[in-house]
Amino acid sequence: MSRGARHGRSKPVRERRCVATGEVKGEEDLLRVALSPEGRVTPDVAARLPGRGGWVTADRVLVDKAVKKRLFNRAFEQPVEAPDDLADQFEALLKARVLNLLGLARRAGRLELGSDAVRLALQTEPGPAWRLEASDAAPDGRKKLDHLAKAIESDAPVLGCYDADTLSRALGVGNAVHGALSQGPEAAGISALAFKLAGFVNLDPAAQDAQKS
């Protein structure tokens, strides 16, 4: 997925400095942290918590570096406590927000489930914004959809970092394995979040495993 891909009208990009690298980047590349009343660094994925914040690149290695070297002290200009598992907290929050948007898309009729629905979406213009594949899906079913996507040169990225049980609970259905997400506000939001989530987890581990075999 391209970092430059954006949906809708372009908006001015606000820039911030990453505490781990010192580089100035657009907020779409960064994650915000806020300071709790107790002086503890708190992940702020929505970038809405009050008070002064700090920014770090959406990358597990760099978040861990900022924690280990106490680089958030510089952002807040005072000694602060950053949890050792800050990267894990970011991952969990990003995953939860993506699942929430998938649920909204399902209720809005923009997420169709089932291999037949995905097959139809792939062959209908403009095609899905995202394909959804459970990480524990049967390899044969996944391969058929992969082959079709390749044959028609679909550029829809695959979100495959959730197992079927997690997807089913989030979507309120039974056995959610394959899905096709249409273009819309949910897809735009998921694209922005998934780009950051990719800094913490492989978005489609099954594809990587298939390449190794």
Any overview of this molecule?
The protein has two domains: 15-84, YlxR-like (Hypothetical Cytosolic Protein, Chain: A, 2-Layer Sandwich); 97-212, 2-Layer Sandwich (60s Ribosomal Protein L30, Chain: A). The strands form three sheets. A four-stranded mixed sheet has the order 6-9-7-8, with helices on both faces. It is elongated and about 55 Å long. The two termini are 23 Å apart. The protein has eight helices and nine strands. By secondary structure, the chain is an alpha+beta fold. β7 (130-133), α5 (139-151) and β8 form a beta-alpha-beta unit.
Explain briefly what this protein structure is:
With 213 residues, the protein is of the alpha+beta class. The chain has helices at 60-68, 72-76, 86-107, 115-122, 139-151, 164-171, 185-197, 205-212, and strands spanning 15-17, 24-26, 30-35, 41-44, 53-57, 111-113, 130-133, 158-159, 178-181.
Tally of discrete structural domains: 2
Number of helices: 8
The residue ranges in which pLDDT falls below 50 over 5 or more consecutive positions are 1-9
CATH architectural name of the largest domain: 2-Layer Sandwich
Mean pLDDT: 92
Radius of gyration, taken over Cα atoms and rounded to an integer in Å:
19 Å
In CATH, what is the class of the largest domain?
Alpha Beta
Q: What portion of the residues fall into strands of 2 or more residues? A: 15-25%
Helix content percent band: 40-55%
User: How many beta-strand elements?
Assistant: 9
* Assigned CATH superfamily of the largest domain: Ribosomal protein L30/S12
Strands of the largest sheet, in order across it? 6-9-7-8
CATH topology of the largest domain: 60s Ribosomal Protein L30, Chain: A
Coarse shape: elongated
The separation of the N and C termini measures 23 Å
Question: How would you spell out the order of helices and strands?
Answer: EEEEEHHHEHEHEHEHH
